[in-house]
Amino acid sequence: MTATAATMAPGAALPTADGFAGTLPESAVDAVLRMALQEDAPYGDITSQTLIPAGARATAVLNAREPGVLSGGAVFAAAMKLTDPDAVVDLLVRDGEAFAAGTALATVTGNARAVLLAERVALNLVQRMSAIATKTAGFVALVAGTKARITDTRKTTPGLRVLERYAVRCGGGANHRFSLSDAVLAKDNHLAVLSGGDPEKLTAVLRNAKAHLGHTTHFEVEVDSMAQIEPVLAAGVDTIMLDNFTLADLAAGVALVAGRARVEASGNVNAGTVADIAATGVDVISIGGLTHSVIALDLGLDIGLDMAPGTRSGAGPTAG
Question: Which residue numbers delimit the Quinolinate phosphoribosyl transferase N-terminal domain (predicted)?
Fold first, then answer.
């Protein structure tokens, strides 16, 4: 079954192949697309306006040049609908679904100039989102059978966070705090300023801070040594992040916390280390590389023009 752009309600939850990826608000997608199109064609696409007849139609296929996990089908469709509201877009693969090289992921039929105008913006976004979903799915597979949850970080492309974090969810991962406004995360620099290395002062400062928070606000603290764990736990925090710990220290840290808080591991996480990190018993593994260093997945848009007999290439000069 295919899903068309016309059937998606604004802000609706988008279906994924293996679970619930949450919502991708239409307003956020529209804002990103308008900004991108303004950047790419501030005064229109003079190439297509010169070469392609105004009434020409085109049918294009979004093809996978390599295997991966799809994310951004709705973004691709929205880009096409933004330049041609009458375009017909069929999404042949669902977000969150794995595909092989050579798979047709979507088709679009519409005004040829409009399809060409949207092409690069649509491809840039769906390629990046699918790369993130694919990389995330790889990490999720590596920790299968453990309780560890793979999450992203705030190391996202400015302006694209809502899309990139949705892509993480499409890959089976979860999201960390969305912004600095969502939760308290006291890191090493915060602790150095507040406590000066005094464990008792650290506990008191954190406990006082927690007392001033709303009861629904999550409180996480990053530590970089075993000696900080007990003073931080004594403050009643919700999550403790063990940053750049060795595997042995991660296991010892999990044992020391003993369920009194959620344990997050961060730092030195890659495809070669993530399984061993998960095996220490941590609850969360946060990976900045899910978003900050992906290489766009190789997807291509193959376009065929349908020009009516007698039409000519080139718009030619216009009066005025």
Answer: 45-130
Residue 207 falls in the annotated catalytic set: no
pLDDT tens by residue, 101-140: 999 999 999 999 999 999 999 999 999 999 999 999 999 9
What dihedral do alpha carbons 62, 67, 72, 75 form, nearest 10°?
Answer: -20
Residues sharing a CB contact under 8 Å with residue 293, sequence separation 6 or more, in sequence order: none
Q: Which one of the listed residues 120, 154, 260, 262 is annotated catalytic? A: 120
Say which of 18, 30, 40, 155 is annotated catalytic.
155
Q: Residue 45 is encoded by which pair of tokens?
A: 């696409």
Q: What is the pTM of this model?
A: 0.89
The yes-or-no answer on residue 200 being catalytic is no
Is 135 known to be catalytic? no
In this predicted model, what pLDDT tens digit does every residue of 242-254 receive, in sequence order?
Answer: 999 999 999 999 9
Q: Among this protein's residues, is 57 annotated catalytic? A: no
At 40, the amino acid letter reads D
Give the residue from 216, 196, 219, 197 showing the smallest Cα distance to 207: 219
Mean pLDDT of the chain, nearest integer: 89
**pLDDT category, 216, cuts 50, 70, 90?**
very high
Name the burial class of residue 18, with classes exposed (0-12), middle (13-18) and buried (19+) by CB atoms within 10 angstroms of its CB.
middle
Question: Which residue among the candidates 40, 243, 249, 298 is catalytic per the annotation?
Answer: 243
Q: Which of 45, 84, 90, 222 is catalytic?
A: 222
Binning pLDDT at 50, 70 and 90, where does residue 63 land? Answer: very high
CATH homologous superfamily of domain 3-141+296-306? Quinolinate phosphoribosyl transferase, N-terminal domain (3.90.1170.20)
222 is a catalytic site residue: yes
Q: Which of 187, 210, 260, 262 is catalytic?
A: 187
Domain locations in the chain as residue ranges: 3-141+296-306, 143-292
